Amino acid sequence: MPKEIERKFLVTGDAWRAQATASGRLRQAYLAATGAAAIRIRIIDSDSALLTIKSANAGMSRDEFEYPVPVADAEAMLEMRTGEVIEKIRHHLPCADGDLTVDEFLGSNAGLLIAEIELPHEDAAPDLPDWFGAEVTDDRRFYNAALSTRPFGAWPEEERRRALPAAA
C-alpha cells in the first residue's frame, strides 16, 4: 500500500527563497472528506492533474493513492468540490534527507507558509534548516482539507498571530 511519510513545519523568514530550485502553481479542492479519507483533485500549472485519495489520520504517515487525470476533467471536478479551492505556489528546495517543499498559500489562505519534507521512513532524522518554525504535522488546522473549509484568512486575528512564527 502506498504511504506518504511527511512532516510539516511553519516557515520563518525568507531565507528559504534563495534556495528554491523550481516553483509551480497548484490549484486543488476536496471532493469529499470523511473521518476515514479525503479525496482531492489537484491541477499543477494548468498542465497536469492528479486525483488523490489520502487516509485522514493525523500524523506523519498516511496511505496515499494518486492517479493522473485529464486537466479538463480536473477542471470539471473542481466545480464539484466541498469548501474553497486552495491556491498556492509550491517551491522545491534541495535536501539530502528527502523531498523538501515550501507551500506559499494564496487567496483566502494568503500569509501562510508551510514547509513539508517527505521522508523515506518514519525514523528518518532530517537535518532541518534554521528557517523551519514550529512543527504542525499533528495539527489538523494546517491540513489542506481543513484550510479548504476554514481558510487561514478567516481565523480570528489572535489565532492567526499565535500560529505564525516570528520573522527570522
Please describe what this structure looks like.
The chain has 168 residues and is mostly beta strands. A hairpin with a 7-residue loop joins strand 7 and strand 8. The chain is globular. An eight-stranded antiparallel barrel has the order 1-5-4-3-2-6-7-8.
Largest sheet, in brief, is: 8 strands, antiparallel, barrel
Share in helix: 10-25%
What global shape is seen?
A: globular
Strand content: 35-45%
> N- to C-terminal separation?
40 Å
> Strands of the largest sheet, in order across it?
1-5-4-3-2-6-7-8
Which structural class best describes the helix and strand composition? mainly beta
Mean residue pLDDT:
93
Number of helices: 3
Quick summary:
The protein is about 10% helix and about 45% strand.
Key traits:
single chain, 168 residues, mainly beta, 8-stranded antiparallel barrel, 3 helices, 12% helix
Task: Produce the secondary structure layout.
Blueprint: E1 3-11, E2 22-33, E3 37-44, E4 48-55, E5 61-69, H1 71-78, E6 82-93, E7 99-105, E8 113-118, E9 132-135, H2 144-149, H3 157-163
Antiparallel strand pairs: 1-5, 1-8, 1-9, 2-3, 2-6, 3-4, 4-5, 6-7, 7-8
